[in-house]
Amino acid sequence: MLRHAREERLIDWTVDDARLAPTADFVARVIRERYPTLDVPFHARWRHFVFSGRDLWREIESTHSWPDTAARARAAFDLAITSVLLDAGAGPGWRYRDALTGIEAARSEGLALASLRWFAAGGMSEAADDALRADAHSLKKLDASALHAAFQVDATNPLAGAEGRAQLLNRLGAAAESRPDLFATADVPRPGGLFDALVARAVNRSLPASMILDVLLDALGPIWRNRPALEGVSLGDCWPHPQGGFVPLHKLSQWLAYSLIEPLQAAGIAVHDIDGLTGLAEYRNGGLFLDMGALVPRDADAMTATHQVSDPFVVGWRSLTVALLDELAPLVRSRLGVSDEAFPLAKLLEGGTWAAGRVIARERRADGGPPLRIVSDGTVF
Fold first, then answer.
1. CA 35 to centroid of chain Cα atoms
2. What DSSP character marks residue 40?
3. What is the C-alpha to C-alpha distance for residues 328 and 160, in angstroms, rounded to an integer?
4. Taken in order 66, 67, 68, 73, is the CA torsion positive or negative?
5. 172: phi then psi, degrees, rounded to nearest 5
6. How far is C-alpha 375 from the geometric centre of its chain's CA atoms?
7. Which of 14, 78, 102, 154 has the most C-beta neighbours closer than 10 Å?
8. What are the tens digits of pLDDT across the range 360-370?
9. How many whole angstroms separate alpha carbon 132 and alpha carbon 116?
10. Residue 243: half-sphere exposure toward Cβ, Cα within 13 Å
11. Residue 113 Cα to chain centre, angstroms
């Protein structure tokens, strides 16, 4: 797709390579401002549970009585999986107000905080004596009204795709019950059962990051709706493009894979080859390249039109985002004076392109929203 764009053969997009260097300068500056010592964590859901230096999940888990490290890891998996699946774009008007801390948050941080409080209150648990779990049976029963209450949704605080999010959790519960080989080898069916499935695949208590994605794509394939299928198999976030065939993007699944690395490490499982995963095809990374002028739509009117996720225009934008992240990474590393090993893509995203995409969005648009209008069912972005 990138080659087509550079050869002026892609139907919707062109690439201005001269803008990659300024983009790298901008990203490197944002990283140094946010992390002066360059001690950047991975781009993971855990970052969104931290507010003004307070790690709210760490506060919760540190006061809980865990029978062993595996139980703690399963709970972390439960939280990460449900919270990431609930994270698709909230829309510009939604906010969450936390009664315990007084924090008010929007977008990804607000969704993270709302999902954390819902989880910690036992909203996904079937066990009266153990709130910190997400049981398949409970997930199957959740409805939109429960999600509305947990996320403070009403006529004055609308959440984009709220019903779709609830239905996604329902399908997650059904998938967990249907695959005990992945979700229930050490407990009743629950998303956290994937921890045990991954431990079983580790060699000498070590596994590549790509193995996490492999297991997630196998386990979560049935939960997606309105996705392309090939020979009866749902492909998830993988879309056809008239010039690129099927383009596997898997934004939520890959972000979830990044987010599961830390619970595995905390449980004594080493994760290597982090760059076996790709950059994330979402509107902060994609918006960075668009707002910085590295990606240019052929039709200027496309910037004000409303698009479907499946439109070739959107598939092309997301595809080019993934390709350009790979090209941007070495440019940023050279400016920071760090190696590939010390600064994998997961750190570049966090430090990083996602944050820089948000900064440039605020400079370009009053609401800080994405540069394109895309119809979301709450399960892609």
1. 21
2. P
3. 31
4. negative
5. -60, -45
6. 18
7. 78
8. 999 999 988 89
9. 10
10. 20
11. 15
